[in-house]
Amino acid sequence: MRIAIASDHAAVDLKAELREYLIQQGHEVADLGPETADRVDYPDYGYKLASVVADGTAEFGVALCGSGIGISIAVNRNPKLRCALVSEPLSASLAREHNNANAIALGARLTGVDMAKACLDAFLSTEFGGGRHAGRVDKLSNPAIGN
Fold first, then answer.
1. Catalytic residue chosen out of the listed positions 9, 27, 98, 133
2. How high is the mean pLDDT in each 10-residue block of the chain (147 residues)?
3. Is the Cβ–Cβ distance between 10 and 65 less than 8 Å?
4. Rounded distance, CA 147 to CA 139, Å?
5. Reduced to 3 states, what is the DSSP secondary structure of residue 7?
6. Of the residues 27, 65, 83, 133, which is catalytic?
7. What is the pLDDT of residue 58?
8. Which of 58, 73, 66 is nearest to 14 (CA)?
9. Residue (of 22, 70, 28, 76) closest to 49 by Cα position
């Protein structure tokens, strides 16, 4: 899979760990930065990640910041993105199965490396369930549907 990963300064170390883990799993990984722990603004990196997933350059995105909250909000500003903030594997799996999430967000200050890897594994190994969920997911990008 082609996966883009981005963070803010608070999650640079977790990003490096997850990037290497994904590469070891055989994925093609685009690290969108930052490269150092110098202070940056998470929206800049969230928007960059959303852009490459929206245009198909990457199939999935991994967004990281201190809590995961800010960068997930930034990613979700793009109407083609469905970024789920998760903290354990079940929510990561359900985000794919029920919501067809195409990005996952994690908080580096809240989620350890091993749990983050377990979340990634669950997210990337789960398929969208379709069926009754498909119409709801369509509404996420087009609120006028059904109104």
1. 98
2. 98 98 98 97 98 98 98 97 98 97 98 98 93 82 70
3. yes
4. 10
5. strand
6. 65
7. 98
8. 66
9. 76
For residue 96, give both structure tokens.
């794919």
Whether 98 is a known active-site residue: answer yes
Which helix (H) or strand (E) segment holds residue 69: the answer is helix 69-75
User: Looking at residue 138, what is its pLDDT?
Assistant: 82
Contact present, 64 and 56 (Cβ < 8 Å) = no
- SS3 of 142, please? coil
Catalytic-residue membership of 27: no
Which helix (H) or strand (E) is 96 found in, with range?
A: helix 89-99
Look at residue 147 in the predicted model and tell me its pLDDT.
Answer: 59
Sheet holding 28-31, edge to edge: 28-31, 2-7, 60-65, 103-107, 83-85
